[in-house]
Design brief:
Layout lengths: L3 E5 L7 H9 L4 E4 L8 E5 L2 E5 L12 E4 L4 E2 L1 H13 L9 E4 L3 E2 L2 H14 L11 H9 L12 H21 L7 H15 L3 E2 L1 H11 L3 E4 L25 H4 L10 E7 L2 E3 L12 H9 L12 E3 L1 E2 H11 L3 E5 L9 E10 L2 E3 L12 E9 L16 H14 L3 E5 L7 E3 L6
Parallel strand pairs: 1-10, 1-11, 2-5, 2-10, 5-7, 6-8, 7-9, 11-15, 14-16, 15-19
Antiparallel strand pairs: 3-4, 12-13, 16-17, 16-18, 19-20
Helix pairs in contact: 3-4, 3-5, 5-6
Length: 429
């Protein structure tokens, strides 16, 4: 049975949560492979909204087992709150449906303090992080100063590890002008984390490979988007992990031969939260229409998203770096009512036309955009479930996206509800 990776192709917020929820109906296992509680996947089922930050979106289907992989950095308080909310909502009746890799690193209070103090110190030059401690946690992982989830099952090891690390972390905090973290309080909190989470913490690699051996259908869930990838995104305004499809292997413990499909999720326009370049951003009535009609507010931060026209340059870059085999276009319904649409197919930098994303952040300072004009449509398309019933202008628009990105369309989303989509092919086939 084919296994698929689902990734975002812009700066996140492409609607991955909804699409993963839909695909999870026929999946056996969903694995989150990178990022932390800085991600937010919003899923609406029967009018009820669930916002998931760490737990894979497949948790809303009783048939599906979910894994938080080793590539994820876990905020214990956030995860416990999420698990409790899922239980209250009736979505997690069996603890065995959620597994946490014992190799996943923990986001601890000092990571958040360091993150926030750094952003404050940078002032106008700040990255615009969520302040959730994700970057400092990944730094500690690379520096071999991290604490892993498996150590919560052996609290003596956890305490020993914290005693080794805290002097280093408190020195960092003091150098940034902050107050020291109380070790005794941290250890007291950690005992609560251990009691709440230890039944979920397992050797996830063993579980995943047993599932592969059985022929289970596995979905690998990405967070953020390709343009926030630490290597392939708009550096330095990026996240701290590899968000592209290749990160699924390292972040879950499987080899690339286990992957059959890469499904790229892309919004029918472009949005971004936080600082950094955004060539097609609109600071006008159209941008306001996209923001208001699309409900463009960050699920994690509550910040309004910056909005703009579809950027085919970054979409093509994302398709290449992810090896996208199929596309899902989301929020097509938001464009209804706009008489004229624009689609950016290239840049002009220092007078030279380019069709690829520049690596230098300075290149965005003097960038001209090459646009294609396309007609819009007036009709509300949110109730349409068959591709042939879409207005001709909408069909032309999505086909142009498919052509410039270079991948066929598997699905089109036309609303927030689970059933508000047009299925064109099965990404598992």
């Amino acid at each position: 049975m084919p296994n698929a990776i689902v990734v975002g192709m812009q700066w996140g917020d492409e609607g991955k949560g909804k699409i993963i929820d839909i695909l999870s109906a026929t999946a056996d296992v969903v694995i989150r492979f990178q990022g932390g509680a800085n991600a937010g996947h919003t899923v609406v089922v029967d009018g009820k909204q669930s916002v998931l930050h760490l737990v894979p979106s497949g948790i809303l289907h009783d048939n599906c087992k979910c894994v938080i992989g080793n590539g994820v950095v876990i905020d214990p308080d956030s995860l416990i709150g999420e698990v409790d909310a899922l239980k209250e909502g009736g979505y997690l009746k069996n603890d065995e449906r959620l597994s946490i890799s014992d190799r996943a690193h923990l986001v601890l209070p000092y990571h958040k303090v360091i993150d926030q103090l750094r952003e404050k110190q940078l002032g106008k030059a700040s990255i615009g992080t969520t302040g959730r401690g994700i970057g400092p946690c990944y730094e500690d992982k690379a520096a071999r100063l991290g604490v892993r989830a498996g150590e919560l099952k052996r609290f003596d090891l956890f305490e020993e590890r914290l005693n080794q690390i805290m002097s280093i972390k408190n020195k960092q905090i003091e150098d940034l002008g902050g107050d020291r973290i109380d070790l005794d309080k941290l250890l007291m909190d950690a005992k609560g984390w251990s009691e709440s989470l230890k039944s979920h913490i397992v050797d996830a690699e063993e579980f995943i490979h047993e599932s592969l051996d059985k022929g289970d259908k596995i979905l690998f869930e990405g967070a953020q988007g390709a343009m926030l990838d630490i290597d392939h995104g708009t550096f330095p305004f990026v996240t701290s992990s590899n968000t592209v499809a290749g990160g699924a292997c390292a972040g879950s413990g499987v080899g690339p031969t286990a992957i059959d499909q890469v499904v790229g999720i892309i919004k029918a326009y472009t949005t971004r939260v936080g600082n950094g370049p955004f060539p097609t951003e609109l600071d006008d009535s159209v941008g306001e229409h996209l923001q208001v009609t699309g409900g463009e507010v960050g699920a994690t931060t509550g910040r309004k998203r910056r909005c703009g026209w579809f950027d085919a340059v970054i979409a093509k870059h994302a398709a290449r770096t992810n090896g996208v085999t199929q596309l899902v276009i989301t929020k097509l319904d938001v464009l209804s009512g706009l008489k004229n649409l624009k689609l950016c197919t290239g840049y002009r930098i220092d007078g030279k036309e380019v069709r690829t994303m520049p690596s230098s952040i300075k290149s965005y300072d003097n960038i001209e955009l090459i646009y294609e004009d396309m007609p819009g449509w007036e009709d509300d398309i949110s109730s349409i479930r068959n591709y042939d019933d879409l207005p001709n202008e909408a069909k032309s628009y999505v086909q142009r996206i498919s052509d410039v990105v270079g991948a066929p369309i598997a699905m089109i989303s036309v609303g927030v509800e689970r059933d508000a989509h047009i299925a064109m092919r099965n990404p598992f086939e």
